[in-house]
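S2.1 Query sequence (long-chain-alcohol oxidase)
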Amino acid sequence: MTPEQIRTLHLLCDTVVPSLDRPDDTDGFWARRASDVGTDHAVLAMITAMPAEQQAGLGSLLDALAANGFHDAPEAVLAAVRQASPEAAAGIGALTSLTLLVTYGITDESGHNPFWTRFGYPGPVATEPPADDRKITPLPVTGDLDLEADVVVIGSGAGGGLIAGRLAAGGADVIVLEAGRYRTESDFDQHEIAAYQGSYWRGGPTPTVDGNITLMAGAGLGGGTVINWTNCIRTRDDVRRQWAEHGLTDVATPEFDRHLDAVWRELSVNDRCSEFNRIHEAMRRGSETLGWSFKTVNRNWDEKRHDAAIAGHLGFGDVSGAKQSSLKVYLEPAVLDHNARVVDGCQVEKILVAGGRAAGVTGKVGEYRVNVRAPIVVLAAGALESPGVLLRSGIGGPAVGQYLRLHPCTVTMGDYGTDMRGWWGAPQAALIDEFATIENGHGFLMESIQYAPALGASAVPFTTPAEHKQTMADFRNTGSFIGLIRDRGHGRISLDPAGNSVASYELTDELDVRNTQRALEAEIRLHHAAGAGRIQVLAQGLPAWQAGDNLDAYIAQAQQLHLGAGGATIFSAHQMGSCRMGTDPATSVANPHGELHDTPGVWIGDASAFPTPSGTNPMISIMALASRTATFIGYA
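Output structure tokens follow.
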């Protein structure tokens, strides 16, 4: 970037988070600017690490700001450029969100952010990681690597990790290729931005190509199970019956219970480590007032290592060693007891085929090529990446990448006028399933979310710098609820010109729109019943409800929001269905056992295999289906 662009970026950061004069600013919150914590330097470093095309686009945007008098009247020009075109608004919005994310998440040498003092957030919990945390030694890649195995597993999350463990225990020679890196307790520092960069897909919150949904997915050995929120829910009976209609007939019988029970036992799932923080207490209080269901969440957590304060950071990597991830439960035994091999940092390019059958995999670790010859390939790179592997390989049929389900989530924040201490305790210790099957087997769950001041700051609607800073000044008093819908509509995964997978998704299905509107109403009513004095839907163009305002009128406004870019902020932490199983090769990628219709020896082993969405946090369903698939492969 040019010196002028850097100067404009610096001013942009301090315009988004400015220094303001307020009385009784005892901790310096109001006076502190973004650049005072080094936001401008951190954002510049992030931009320079982007692909050249993105750098050029942001540089042009900064040039346009400067050309329009930004240095003389920053707020006015910023607002004018945002109004100039959708492209300009999107670019400014992205830079604004990045600035807020960094400002409220960046830390100094002591691991602290000075803005946190106003939040009452103590930051990371001082603790020593377990001495035995690094049990796996990935194969070193110091040159091109040629390997042979009985089975090569692409991906190591909930599905891939379990299948690797099952097949290795059954006597197969297994190699696991993982795009992310091997990280354990000694690598985690409980810092939000570092966690996004090291353990999340594409470095953290990533929008779909159309900007409608912000995707959150794990990346690393153990996949999403290393950074998810440990909410364990068995596959619903009605969903099992629906999957049986797609040809998975045994899923609707007690045979599938065997897999569910085994996973439940192996993960040490229990409800004894699910203490309620003040946000969960508000959820319970509101649900009791409204007469709604309320349940304590079961979690895959080791009671002997449990510490509620540390559990509050589990989405940033669990430093206690209590989380029973696929890394701990399946991959470590596969390597230590059954000689499975692991290559991390491996970007799989394609599946090799010979004589119409699976023959192996080729990929790269940095500049070096990794080739694995194997007659069985298990594709478990996640619903965002597994279709990309098949598309690059030219196999899988016409349904590859179709039927992507996301469990889209709206978010609503309530201000309770007291410190909610949302950083304490597991982020999801309770849920409301009152509306789970409100219409034709579809509906929504109501849950809470991880305390994440950086992500929260970037998601809070930005109107003016002063208004946003006021919202953050009150952040300690807030708690958020989400409405997670079981979507009937779907998106798709395709490839960009460089061959990378891209997701697109429009929330336009009539039933999904109806259920999202119902979820927004339920979130607002829950906050109101729990005693919130201010309620804010995370959405552009909708002011907050204040005590004394007409609640029904506010709900009606919320239900008119556009559901996507420029309207309601929508997140997805559950991606499913993009390589689904079924009997029809025209509408499914794999047969009901999980093997590709058109390429024997290639098996789908992750959430992309779901015929339809689970309607619940999917980890247990992924693992049970993977356990089932492992038996069909033959070694388990």
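The CA atoms of residues 545 and 553 lie 10 Å apart. The domain at 201-216+269-323+406-573 is CATH 3.30.560 (Glucose Oxidase; domain 3).
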